[in-house]
Amino acid sequence: MDGRRVTERVRGTSGVRATARIAARADGRGGTALPVLESDGPLALRRTRGSGDEARIMLVGAMSGPLGGDRFAVEAEVGEGARLRVGSAAATIALPGQAKGEARYDVRIDVAAGGELRWLPEQLISANGSDLSVSTRVDLAAGARLVFREEQVLGRVGEEPGRLTSRLTVLLGGRPLLDQQVGCGPGAPGGWDGPAVLGGLRALGQLVVVRPEFVERTPAPRVLGETAVLTPLAGPAVLVSALAPDALRLRRVLDEALAELDG
User: Fold this and answer.
1) With CB atoms counted within 10 Å of each terminal CB, which end of the chain scores lower, N or C?
2) Which InterPro entries match (predicted)?
3) What are the pLDDT digits (tens) for 104-150?
4) Residue 250 half-sphere exposure toward CB, CA atoms < 13 A
5) Distance of alpha carbon 71 from the chain centroid
6) In whole angstroms, what is the distance from residue 211 CA to residue 223 CA?
7) pLDDT, tens only, 175-198
8) For 7, phi and psi rounded to 5 degrees?
9) Lowest pLDDT segment from 8-12, 92-96, 110-114
10) Which residues make beta-bridge pairs with 103?
11) Which of 8, 14, 168 is nearest to 103 (CA)?
């Protein structure tokens, strides 16, 4: 199915509600099928040319946002033996809106045993005056593979950031692998911009890589450049955490780390 659902509510005093859905399945011929590819309102999904047995999806923003009061969600399910790569066509910009209250962006991901997901969207930019809460939950079955990248930029060029709260939870076989939350901008807990947290830098990101072979050989912890570190997790996984002055240098650090892990 490849269609667009009617947005639940026109953007106004209560904001927009929109949920996009993806399901990937092994097609039995050495490839990956997409039986569910469901766009909704501002969340438009487009299938692009894949590579080998991997299917590729691009998330295209059909309108600005999320704005104040909006509720966006993306749900992705990867079945056994399927391989899926999800990216986005451009950065997501959180903006202030007419509706009062915070905006929400929820991501829910399930990957079955033997399935593989590479989640590689563009950056999230927290514009001045915005208030956005992001929640991501990834449920992995034992034997699943994951590459998950998350990048956040605090403010556009020359402006102060909005308020941004982001929580990432990754479970493997029903057990917590990673559960962390960060808050930045006006109203966030004190010290978020201090030397113990961001140290005045405005781009932060992380890379989570889960692979069954890490059970036998987990990459060693190490510092990557001046403001990044690779940390093994309590499972077949590693976390790369990075800070940078801008989005370009942040991406460079995370790309180099992923190339090394892939190699």
Assistant:
1) C
2) UreD
3) 999 999 999 999 999 999 999 999 999 999 999 999 999 999 999 99
4) 23
5) 16
6) 21
7) 999 999 999 999 888 778 888 888
8) -60, 140
9) 8-12
10) 132
11) 14
